[in-house]
Structure formats: C-alpha cells, structure tokens
User: Fold these one by one.
Assistant:
Number 1:
Amino acid sequence: MLHHPAHLGYALIVCLMIFIAFPCTARAQTRAANHFLGVLSPYSGRLTLGDRLATHGFISQGFLWSSGNNYLAQSKKGSFEFTEVGLSIAADLGGGFTAGIQFFSRDLGPTGGYTPQVDWAYLGYKWRDWLGIRLGRVKIPFGLYNEMSDIDAARVPILLPQSIYQIENRQFLLAQTGAEISGIIPLARAGELEYSAYAGTLYTDISSTPNINSLHVPYLAGGRLLWRTPLKGFTFGSSALAGELESNATLSQKQIDTFAASGVLFPSGFDGKIENTVSAVFVAASAEYVRGGLLVAAEYSRRYIENTSSVPATIPKAKTTNEKAYLMASYEFLEWFTGGIYYSIDFKDIDLRSHFDKTQHDLAATLRFNVGAHFVLKIEGHYLNGTAVLSPALNDNRPNSESKKNWALLLTKATVTF
C-alpha cells in the first residue's frame, strides 16, 4: 500500500520507467541464443506439432536472501517467492504470415500472486527480409536484451543489470498494443543493420494498485537500430522510446491528514482526487562483443521524465533526468559451466548523485550450470551500495534514505524448459 505521500507519486511515475520484452519471432530466438554464448536455447526441447505449430514452456523457481534491506520480497528472512511459469504457442500460417501467443504467471514477493495473463499475442507478416510487420500485443525492443529479459535459460545472470532491466516493473510495461515494423538490411562489406519501429498504447492492470483509479497512455512510440559490423563479433546499437501516461488517483483520508500535518494546504472542497501526467523519453546506446565462449557488453541510458499534477502540493511539478549504465562479461569455461560478472550503476536523479537513496551501485557475479538439455541451475551474489532500487513498502515503510547504505543479495534459481 502507499502509506507515505511520496509513494503515490512514485507509483504514478514508475509506470513509464520500465523495460522488458520477450522474443516473438524465430529470428529473435536465434539472436538470443547467439548473444548468450550458445547456452541452452529458449526453444530447446520444444514440442513440435507438425512443421507449422510449436509450443514452448518453462518453469523457474528461485530463492532470495539479503542483508540489511528487503529486496523484491521479504528477503532478509530468505524467500522462495520467486517463481515464473510460461507457455507459448507459435504458428507458421503460410504465405509469410505468422502468429503467436504466450501465457505467463509469476510470484515475486508482493507482485504477481500466480495470476495468469497473456504476455503477448500477435499476427505477423514478413514480406521480405528487410520488411515485416506485427500487429497486436507486441513486445517492446529496447537495448540488447529486453527481448530475452524474462527467459532465464537464454542468459547467464539471474538478474540482468537492474539499472536498465528492472525485474519488479515487468507488470507495468510488458508490451505495447499497436504495430511494429522490422527487418534486416544487408550493408555489403559494412555488415548488416537490424531495425525495429513501433507505435501504440499500453494497457495495465491496476486492480491490485491502491489509490490509483485509472491509467491511460495516449501514445507510446519508439525504435531500435542494431548494427552488426563486419568485424566479427561486434554489435552496436541505439534505442529510443517516448510516451505519456495520464492517471487519476484518490488519496485516502489518512494520506490527506498526513499531508495536512506536514503543512500542505489543499484547495477548498478538495475531495482527494488528483490528476497526474507523466511524459518520458528514454534513450540508450549499446555495444556487444561475442567471440567463442566470451561475451562482453556495455550499455548507457538516459531517461528524461516530466511530471505535472492537478495538486502540485502533493505531487510537485518536476523534470528529472535518470542516468544508467553497466559493463558485463561472461565466459563459457565448459559446455556445462559458464561464469559471469557485471557492474551496474543507476542515478535516479543526476542532480542528486551524492544522495545514496537516489543511487545504486551493483557488483554481481554468477555461476551457471547446464544440467542436461532442459535444466539450468544458477547461483548469484550481489554487493550493493545505495538504496535507489528499494521499495519502502517492503522495509517497514522507511524512506530509502533511512535504509542500510551497503548491503548484499544472494540468489539461486532453477529452470526447466520443455
């Protein structure tokens, strides 16, 4: 629940500060496997029904433990509330037409509760290699790894760098409902260029979100370019996204009293309703190198967010710039064993870099074990400095400025694919 006035503003803003995606085409699945050093493909072990219909599924169970602060769940006591289940169906309809749908359910601390949902559903047509279109509920490409960020078997880390790929925000910006065009353009000796461009809107479930009465996204549009250079193994990319979110919320009497006690003066006849608009522009630059069993990747992103409210005393008008980056490497030592490491940094406000509650430094290391063709086991440790990613609701409603500055996180995760 939103026990503190500032949490209401955060809940409204966070709905546009999210990036995740899931592959919807065979090409994306192949690229995912190539990116992650040939580790278990997301479609390995799939059940194929004829030549034109295939199903794929996965079940993951994880464990979380942290020192100092709760993260994602009640992790200081240790938590098994880290479960994911997915089932997708893909069909080749012939004549260049394809279709697909994925059902997904998860439990992640207070999020999900095993509620089944449709992750994505689309109808696609590929005219040429350089031009295809998808319509429906389509995943949003951003950065290098959004299209595989929730496929545990397709990557080395349990948690991708959280500065850019924040796991707990998956439910808010899962896919855009609209259209996407994409293709691959050969550049002769200069390599090839893969592009995606999309436009649409978002539909989010707010039934479990206290205080918020409605959310409306007038528009969401963006695109991504990936240049696969003639230098073997090198890929460079850029991504951009722009959108607007309009919301309507109602403060509880307790929240009104809390604001009033802090000196906030409400308009005469104020009934607790607040209208809020968040405009956001996200940009990112990406680089990746893959050679043999080695992968090295780096990404840098900025997010420009402007917030306006019908009651500025509760949610002040503000313009904020976030800055995010990471450097990641992994190496496949053996066919069944891969090790990885990354350093990620997240500044929620570039004007407040010295405030540890607005900053997150994250040093992580992962051990991945492929046990047979369909089972993956991972162990991962994090040392964190800063509290920007914490949820006060999971930490006795303490402001992040009062949480432990230095803390650790340990995760394990087992995934079965079929």
Number 2:
Amino acid sequence: MLPAKGNGARGRRRIRRSARQVASDDAKILTYVKAHPAVRSIAIQKEVRLRKPAIASGLLRLREANKIRSKGVRAGTTYSAA
C-alpha cells in the first residue's frame, strides 16, 4: 500500500502581499462591514472574495485601529462599523 498524500501546506508557498495590497484589502473589508452591519466573517469572505487568512488579519487590524467592533465569540462573532 502506498502512503496517503496529504494536501496540507507543505507544498504550498506563502503568499506575500505588499503594504498597498494589504491596505486595499482592509478598505474592501471595511466598506463591506459598513454596508452590512452585524455581519460574520464567513459572509465577508464570500462577498469580498479574499482568502480566510487575509480576512482574519484584516479584521484584526481594523479592530485594533477602532474602525470596526466585534461582538460574540468564535464562529458567532459579528462585525459592525465603529
């Protein structure tokens, strides 16, 4: 029997984004959150069409900058404009 091939992150390269790309992604996230109050991150991910790590890091930066606020825990967390 052959060993099963994993489809983990071993063969993938990390995507490095420039500061301009990060700022653009954050602006997209903020615009969507302002237009859709009390939205969950999965909805943001589907509509803005960014990868999950980009959404997670963008939401963290926007929360730290007090541009959005979060309510709830884990998958039930909703985001609204501050």
Number 3:
Amino acid sequence: MKINYDFIQKHLGLQGIEVTYTNVNNGTFEIHAVCMHNFTVCPRCKRITQQVHDSRCQPY
C-alpha cells in the first residue's frame, strides 16, 4: 500500500520536512522524516550554517 506522505505533512502541519517512513505500534504513531533545507542553526553560536555534524531522532 502506497502511503501519501504529503497528506501526513499537511494534516499534521509539519512544514520543511520530508516524511520518509511511518510506523504504528501499540497505539503510538511514529513519523520518520528528514529536513528539506540544506542549512541549520548552530546550537553553539546561533549562526546559520550548512555543516551538520550530528542528527538524532527526536520526539515531537
């Protein structure tokens, strides 16, 4: 079954991400996604950068 990830993004109001995978387990709906932008804000200096050194799963 093909899942319409665009519907999930719009329905949940998630913008700027690309949904790559979803999973439902024990009543928990997990969404796996990656950022669509090629930049981020450095957590140390708060400047915009294109270098991402680490990424992690985060609950939303």
